[in-house]
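DOMAIN: structural biology
WANTED: fold as tokens
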Amino acid sequence: MTHTAMLLAAALAAGALDAVAGGGGLIMLPALLVFGPAVPVATLLGTNKLAAVAGTGTAAATYLRRTAVDWRILGPAAALAVLAAAGGASVAGTIPATAYRPVIIVALAAVALIVILRPKLGLRSRAHPGGTGRAITATLLAGAGIGLYDGLIGPGTGTFLLLTFTAVLGLDFLHASALAKVVNVGTNLGALVVFALGGHVLWLLGAAMAAANVLGARAGAALALRRGARFIRLVLLLVVGALLARLGWDQVHD
């Protein structure tokens, strides 16, 4: 396969994975770094965001057609995520990976333990104990914090959002996925605007990868909606395991 074909295949697979449980950046960004053209890393990051925003937008639309969401909670969080991700993207590359990687590894390990030790987590929705006010606050904090992370780093953003909305808001994985995808559209869009203004997007390659990512996202979202929360939980554990393996490898070999 040519390098372009490899990138399109990676974008297709990333779209499907990201639509189910997040983690598409684990596939698409490394593929760009290996098979992409010899351009600055920031340009590869921007191209990745162009493809990703198309895929997450498609997945979000698919979920929203089949699940109800509370826009009083979701709307402000998505808007704040745009700003936070833009802020993160504007300083991307100024913070070394060694500064944040150990914290993320610990957080992911804790997440994996929670999901494993609480087998019923995310299988059905429950009322948020703090009411709508606390739910809005928690969602805004998630949009800001995880949006900043997406602008700075990226891979795993959808997974972190899914876990946050499941654990904090008491949603099942299916409804949490709908919220996560909408906020993830915001984080991808905010970062993309910053990269585009800096001239760091390969538009033709990004558009082709976006088309492949959209196809994968449609298939992944449809599969998640058909198979339900238990399927999403399984894929989520696999994604968290892959994230831990990737970050652990980077940590040891730096």
About this structure: The chain has a mean pLDDT of 83. Residues 3-253 form one domain.
